[in-house]
What does this fold into?
Amino acid sequence: MKIDFKNGSTTKNLILLSIPVVIEQLLITLTQYVDTAMVGQLGENATASVSLTTTITWLINSISFAASIAVMTLIASSIGSQDRKKTVILSKQSLILTFIFGIAVGAISIGASPFIPVWMGAAEDIRYDASIYFAITSIPMLFRSATIILGDAIRATGDTKSTMYVVITQNIFNVGLNYLFIYVLGLGVLGAAIATAISHTFSGIAIFIIYRKKACLYYPMKELRYDKVTMRICWRLIFPVLLTHIATRMAHVVFSGLVSSGMGTTIFASHSIAITAEGLFYVGGFGIQIAVQTMVGMAVGERNYKKFEEVVRSGSLMVLIFMTVTGAIMYLISDPLASFFTISDEVAKLSAEMLRLIAFTEPLFGVMIIMQGIYYGLGQNRYPMIGEIISMWGVRVVFTYLVINVWHLGLREVWFCMMADIIFKMLFFTLPMLFKRSRESFFNRSFI
It folds into this structure.
């Protein structure tokens, strides 16, 4: 069914735009599930080796995500204003940003790979495997950046199906390669890394081909050049998001390191599995966030405040319903879900307990990320930056440190700190959007 952004129903358009992105986000998470589950059959050390660098991987990916958020916001706005020339210029800058972030971040990641397990406070017996896993999966960083940045350029045009098809193929590819390298060739953690690297390379190439065939984004490659004026606007949007992601991902690293070094391998494995398992239930909310951000950007381009209001209402209601349902499902299937990732009964039992705990905050988490998407769609990236940094460091990290090193409590209390972080950010992001005058102020101050 074709999406009519100009005259169609806002709620209907949001649903049509969201469905492929939600499916895509769920499939991306399944890639992590496959790695963790297949390696988990090799024992706790293998699970910890793959899971140890998860927060670092989030940090690395977040750098490209900062660029992709700027690209999506600006292209969606240019589509909304029907400015073909501006769209093409932004398309060129998207590819340039892909090269800048892909090459720079890839080089840094590979160079830092031997030291990361040490910085994370990992046990001696898993450091080598964790380092190798991270290094190999960092080699195709240019392709990973293409998937993220060019993928969002494609989504900003209203095409969310093409990237979904790529992810479906990538997941099938990854499962087959995992089986081949981990079990048939007996490469264990190394095999999981090789399979992941190859699937990332495939995804990046496929996304680039789709990007080049997109009519509204097309330009002859000989015309590719850095546009100072446009890129200045891009960097203005990128820097607050980049700072947010770096600060919050570093907080995740510290948070994970506190659990890893202060609670031992078994508890850390339980913690990591619960984190990974939870991902399947909230990434759908990020899919709705992408749709909301795209449509807010289009409303800004049209200077259509009424449509903006409709997007805010519809997007918030959609994610609240969606994540209430997914949270309930996660609570009900927590035991078999945790057991899927590990052969250790002790690890599975503790992981399931954490999943039941966090299930109650899933709807609040959903509202929080939709509000964040609204600010990004408006180009108002500094406000969510303030809330993220205060909450991650002032709530999650500080209280986790106290729980582990001062009060000497357990993993349940650590996850209470996570829940407090979610609640704080939800309130911080939502309060300004509850008042019409405040919403109008944010909309009118949008500079894109």
Remarks:
- The CA atoms of residues 44 and 75 lie 45 Å apart.
- The radius of gyration is 21 Å.
- The chain has a mean pLDDT of 90.
